Amino acid sequence: MTLTDSSTSRAAGGDVPLLEVSGLTVGFPTPDGVVEAVRGIDFTLRRGEVLGIVGESGSGKSVTSTAILGLLPPTARIGGSIRLDGTELVGADDRSMSAIRGKRISMVFQDPLSAFTPVYTVGQQIAETVRIHRGSSKEEARARAIELLEIVGIPDAPRRVDSFPHEFSGGMRQRAMIAMAIANDPDVILADEPTTALDVTIQAQVIAVLRKAQQEAGAALVFVSHDLGVIAGFADRIAVMYAGRIVETATAEDLFTKPRMPYTVGLIGALPRLDQRSGQPLVPIPGTPPSLLNLPTGCPFAARCPLVTDECRSSEPPLAQAEGVLGGHLAACHHSDELARTGADPDEVFDLPELEAGALDGVPRDERETVLHVDGLVKTFPLRRGAVFKRTVGQVWAVDGVDLDIREGETLGLVGESGSGKSTTLHEIMDLRRPEQGSIQVLGTDLGAGQLDGATVRRLRSTVSMVFQDPMASLDPRQPVSDIIAEPLLAAGTPAGDVARRVPALMKMVGLDSSAASRFPHEFSGGQRQRISIARALAASPRLVVLDEPVSALDVSIQAGVLNLLRELKAKLGLSYLFVSHDLSVIRHVADRVSVMYLGRTVETGAVDEVFEHPLHPYTQALLSAVPVPDPARERAREHILLPGDPPNPTEKQVGCRFRGRCPVFAMLGAAEKERCATEVPLALPHGRDGQDHTAACHFPQEKQLV
Amino acid sequence: MIRYLSRRLVYYVILAFIATSLTYFLASATFDPRAQYSQRNPAPPVSVVDAKLDHIGVNDKTPILVRYGHWVGDLAHGDLGQTIRDTSVNQEFWPRLGVSLRLLLAGSIVGILLGVLVGVWNAVRQYKLSDRVTAVLSFILISTPVFLTAVFLKIGATQLNSTLGFQLISFTGEATPNLQGGLAAIAGDRFVHLLLPTISIALGSIAIYSRYQRATMLDVLQADYIRTARAKGLRQRPAILKHGLRTALIPMTTLFAYGFLGVLTGATFTEKIFGWNGLGAWFIDSVNANDVNSVVAYTLFSAFVVLFAGFLSDVLNAILDPRVRTQS
User: Fold this and answer.
1) Would the ipTM clear 0.85, i.e. be above it?
2) What architecture (CATH level 2) is domain B93-288?
3) Is B326 close to A167, i.e. CB distance below 8 A?
4) N or C, where is chain A less crowded by C-beta within 10 Å?
5) Residues A345-383: pLDDT tens digits?
6) Do B224 and A115 touch (CB under 8 A)?
7) Which residues in chain A are contacts of B11 at CB distance < 8 A?
8) Nearest residue on chain B to A385, judged by CA atoms?
């Protein structure tokens, strides 16, 4: 039997690698030189195996998967070899590659909305994949499309097959994408960040479907992601990429327990974890990844590495068998033996910042001043129709009963999936106007109490400030940083002399060099830009800072630094935070208390450790179980609650409990109890353990340990 | 869908009526039909002129609202009124309508088809020589007025004919007068006459449409769904044509509606230059003759064709884009 004989090796399976990538290099010529996006990658993939590729933006992970599919732009310079069952794919002509694409290698893309052609039905697009490679008739292909949609769990597939992509929800689109990928029983499925844009409960659904589809097709899977947590429970083997190379590869368990490359160690330490009590700082990896244009000699991680020596700066270490670990565990580091000796604890390898104790740390909650109190907040939007004469045909109940309470020096984490009304709640607070229903009190001033005079509003404006999600879009690209930071001060009428003194102090406070004040936002990295946003938010010395997904656009290693900064500022300045995030691990890490929203309503509130360890509401439990824990052994052993379907449409006024349609507890109840859920809106009551700060809006709360 | 489009049609009828009425007032206020008669030599008596103008319905001694009332009353019976020479506007209007529509239709269709083709071709071959050359040509054509293009075409055709020694391209009028022969000969003759006028009004739209089509196509070529189509195993060309072109055409449908205005304006000049007896040439003559009713009749026509072009572009948009269909 020879390696090049594909039919025999396919039949034999087992030992012969299905996909063999060796010495793969990809360069993109630019006017300034060649950007070396991939600099020599080797890996093999066996039939049925799941390989996770992890890396931050710009590490070359997506370029690698695109190269395997042969879909890089024609300007790309590709070197090395990619062999599928012994057949060389690098340099193959488009005709033979087209015969392989969609049949033997298929791909699941990140953003399922833009990845579907908007003008054809989902069924047509899946059927097309079948017809290209099998030459089936239209009817056969359509029947196969329905069958595939059923496999990936689209309800009512024979009808939904004629839907257009925009008529599907995000999760359903990604399922349809997976259906398309397995249409021809491929040998290899490449999944490029398949769950990144999805909510956590939908992510859990999609991962389950992907696993099922992969087993059904008997395919090998390459799962590319920036999220170590998602990969941990799923992949057999993990490859960590940095600056266009694999810097460490091992089985999932080995990689997490015995990392042998400082970058991996840092990544593990930088990740906030759902299953660790709040209070500890995260490991910040200093600096930013290097530019792949004219990379200096030596290890590309040298500039950020705590173990760096002269050897690292002069020669780049090869990917080689690491010390004290199983065979096949490779690391590219001159100091992997040192890590083997010390045990590679992230907290020891990297310098952990000391967190100052806040002045209010010992003060009980009841004795602190209330900074923000929201009670029964309601916000509806009219739903309009008509081209010339608009008429109101209904209402969107964006927020329908939100309660929040934030004390001085406290962080409240606000959690919920997209469409749960988090952003609307923030906008209602930041508007400083009388709410539609319910009440908002900022530092004791009730926004509903008559018309507030201009002076009061101005005073309140400087006590509440906001940091936005996208650090690029929220900074004016034509303003130098000093002007951006000075703006809230000028708006508050601060004298010019004070402004000039305050701006450099603010920059220093958020860890930026004040000599950079005259530069423009585009000259800064993502993490630095978010620091500028934070400096701007702090300029007018606010008491409450509203943070809307402040780290979700940042890479893990950068995110850790920003989160540490936020904690440090809170302690130093006695700030209160309203911290909105879809990432429960981040919330566990930064928040003192947490409030969970579902479909415009607060369903559970309490001290963060209490809610995470003893969740009461079935929705909170489902959310927690859906968040992957970056620890393969624990992740596989955890109980996972899969919620069926998507959140309902907020255009209907909800009667009774709004979660009952997806609620696993409701499904098990008797008829009389079901009737109660269907008619009576559950109120937030202290169902939890005695004396704990913990309320849940559920008629039948049952504590469950999931973390 | 049908409801949405029929509602659109009702709006269009109202809009066309408003546009025509506004023209009526504007023309009545600025034109001087009396001069047409009073300045004759020998000058007719005032009472005779008044009687004539009253009969036509453009006597400036009658209040404008009364005149407008009469005009609307006639319009309701399908009567477009009398020309300044006291002949029926209807008799002038309908025979010319066919002539103009033939030119407008040919010009628009050729303009759209070639514009889209050139645009797609340029987008696929971005920054290649063909792309750069067409870009320069387009900008020259966009900045050249139609009457200049038409005159250049005329000169070119004359030179070609004299070089060849026989009349290959005829370009005066819409047909050779008193042509003998069968149906085929007549059709061929009409086609040859249509050639230059069509080219001269189509060139401008080809230039503009191709620029826009190139831009929308370039956007689409970068789109994720083209990559998906390729990842399924489609070759480059079918992936672009099947998944790209249709999406890239959607924003163009709106442009076609607006572009038709340019075609209409162009046709007005072209008819005059090539000696076609169409509505455009008639319109220019009517303006010179202070002929209120004829000018208003032309406005009615142009309002209807422009709005109909808009209607067609809505239909086309709905056919191409399922997202529009479900909204209504």
Assistant:
1) no
2) Orthogonal Bundle (1.10)
3) yes
4) N
5) 888 888 887 777 777 778 888 889 999 999 999 999 888
6) yes
7) 388
8) B328
